[in-house]
Amino acid sequence: MADDLHTRYQRALDAWCTHSETCEPCRPEQHCPAGAPLYRRLADLQDAYLQQLRSR
User: Fold this and answer.
1) CA distance 22 to 49
2) Residue 5 · residue 49 · CB < 8 Å
3) Which residues pair with 30 in a beta bridge?
């Protein structure tokens, strides 16, 4: 499970970085309609991954 969570987190990070590098409307506190779900997924997976690290 830990490796799977880390893999999903890294893929979400890659997807967000790829999108945000080429999307002019996306800013740290504002996201376009396509970028918002990518950012939300990244944030959710990051929270889950950090929670898992803290519980070790």
Assistant:
1) 27
2) yes
3) 27
